[in-house]
Design goal:
By secondary structure, the chain is of the alpha/beta class. The chain is built from 12 helices and 13 strands. The protein binds 1-O-phosphono-beta-D-fructofuranose (F1X).
Length: 345
Amino acid sequence: MIYTMTLNPALDYVMHPLTLDMGYTNRSSSEELYCGGNGINISTLLNELDVVNVAMGIVAGFTGEYLINELQEAGIASNFVKLDRGYTRINVKLNGIVMTMVNGMGPKISQKKVDELLDRMDVLQSGDTLVLTGSIPNSLPEDMYNQIMARLAGRGIQFVVDAPGQLLMESIKAHPFLIKPNNHEVGRIFKADPMPETPEDCLPYAQKLQEGGARNVIVSCGGNGSLLLDEYGTEHMVPTARVRLVNATGAGDSMVAGFLAKVTRGLDYENALIYASACGTATAASKGIAKRSTIDRVVTALYKKMGREMPASIADDIKNEKARAEAQALAAEGNDEEKQSPEGA
Ligand SMILES: O=P(O)(O)OC[C@@]1(O)O[C@H](CO)[C@@H](O)[C@@H]1O
């Protein structure tokens, strides 16, 4: 079973302003509300791929209630500690010519609630995967992920960590099965100058992260593709299918979900990376986390672009002929100019 942990979930309020002038009232042309936070995005995409999983974490207030109800309606099992005060944050995503995000700090969490969460984690068993991802509210210690991994150590549980900066560096000491920073995060961690932009640029940094303890390292590089340095030391580099960018929020989370969905079902690392890349791109081309039909289209387009044969296990899973035809149409859009997001996927 895959468990995702979101210590600081959010409602993502995506607004589409036509212009953005600081110091003035700006008007949005449309807006949407999604359940967010990295782990919740991963659970949402896993669910879309029919991978049964449990979303865990901490919620508060009316926004937290909304989030749990929405997960329930989507058929995603959840196990959240509820705080008595405060509210789950609302992260504002201003999706204009470039994406600008303002993420909330999150509610204050007492030690009692942390202990309650740790106790709930005792349901995890040997063979389970725990995905620790996203920022940690200020009131929790920087080494929170390490505390969780230490508590579960020796029980045959595999860890996946996708976290910013120091949090990630601390976590690799626990030898996680997978980490997935993007190229900008890797550049900031190692104070790289110039910033690594391509999978090739990121390879030396992925090697350092592996030397630090991570088993498999994926580095996503937005429109430039992605890199996997696997636990056997083999490097895999995959391009990105070209699509029109709609909303980059959750694209990196979708990669993690796509990769896990496939490796837990026995697919080899190289093809799992291709599938992961397609899932990230599909979300970038969607409003909210990608739906299955978009993933099917993008994965077909990516295999075509790479001139690669699609493994039977993926091909058998592409739901219908219509998706195949649409995939061809999407591949033909490859000449469209891609809008750039401020961070890699
Ligand atoms: O503030 P954090 O925890 O670093 O990031 C939170 C967040 O920006 O990440 C997700 C996309 O990956 C969004 O759903 C969410 O709003």
